[in-house]
Structure formats: structure tokens, C-alpha cells
Write a structure and sequence with these properties.
Largest sheet: 7 strands, mixed
Helix content: 40-55%
CATH architecture: 3-Layer(aba) Sandwich
Number of helices: 8
CATH superfamily: Vaccinia Virus protein VP39
Structural class: alpha/beta
Order of helices and strands: HHEHEHEEHEHHHEE
CATH topology: Rossmann fold
Strand order of the largest sheet: 3-2-1-4-5-7-6
Distance between the termini: 29 Å
CATH class: Alpha Beta
Number of domains: 1
Number of strands: 7
Length: 211
Amino acid sequence: MNRAHSVVCSSGLWARSVERKLLPWGLGGVDLGEDVLEIGPGFGATTRVLARRSGSLTVLELSESYCERLRRTLEDNVEIVQADATAMPFADGRFSAVVCFTMLHHVPSPALQDRLFAEVFRVLRAGGVFVNAEQVSGASALFDQFNASWHEAGARQAGSDDAEWGGALERMAHDRCAPVERQLSWLEQAGFADADCVFKDHRFAVLVAKR
């Protein structure tokens, strides 16, 4: 995560957006079961909301400094594990659900993103569910440009000036977004019997898969 991402994701505005929009969009109607893994919690905005559920919650974070921050700020009922999501240190079939929220685009290559999906399949038990709420690219360059124009128009309408929009472009330059179609293909190749995009609004999508 680059510095611009860090500023956004540690803000109170992001925490409120997570609770009021991101998680309701991502988890509406989904039964996560009693043993949940969250991948890539970052500063923990999503984790704090997930921790209010009953059952067990484990988070997997690559950055040791973020793990230290999470240990200081989260309750003791959350297990925090520092490791790479493309090679998870968990037994096969351990979790009832795996979730990640606006995380996949930080994984630096399509091959590693594909490997992450395979690891998710491995650590899920039979009947387990995977929820990936994520920024996505368009199906072609035409739709990438369409979505970029829509995004800028919305930001300008909300009051963003040139400096703020420039900062957003700097932040997004580090993203490695994959289109919905490619992600569904990765899920199928990983072994998921059922997978679909259940919500999409321009550059944001929610994919759900069942093992």
C-alpha cells in the first residue's frame, strides 16, 4: 500500500464508508458461518465491523507494521497472522468463509492474484463461501476510459479540485485491477463450483463463490 492509500484508508471517512456502504454491499445476504478469515485488512476498518459478529475471526496481513498496529487497536478476540496470502499458513479446509475488501488490486501481478484465489479455495471447507469486494478494471480499454470519466465527474461534482483529483490519480496508478470476467475465470480454475458477480457499479464489484 502506497502513502496515498495509507492516508485514505486510515481516515475516519473511510471507516464510516466501510460500515455504511462497503460491508453492506459486500456481505448482504451472505452467511459467513462461525470461522471467518479476512485477507488484507490494512488499518482494520473492515475488521472492526466484522469482529462484532459472533464466531471466530482471523486476519491475514502481509505487512508486519500493520499487524503491530492491528494488535494495538483490535480486541483480543481477533487472531492476527502475518503472512503472504499467496502461501497461507493454514490447514486445508479450516475456514467457513474467506473475505477481502478492496485488497486484490494491491497484489502486484495477475499470476499472484490467481494464486491467491487458489489458496482461498484450499483453506475453505466444503460449502464455504468466498466474498471479494473489489475495484475492477473494465472489460476493455473503452470501458476503462468510460469508468475513469465517470469517476472523475463524480469526484468533481462532490467538490474535488485539481490537487485532490491529482492525488487520486497518483493513488490509482499503483492499482493492479482485474476485470470481473478474468476473476470469475480464476475462481473456476481454482475449483469453485459456483461463482458470480452479484453487484457491480462501474469500477466496484462484489464477487461471491462457493466451494
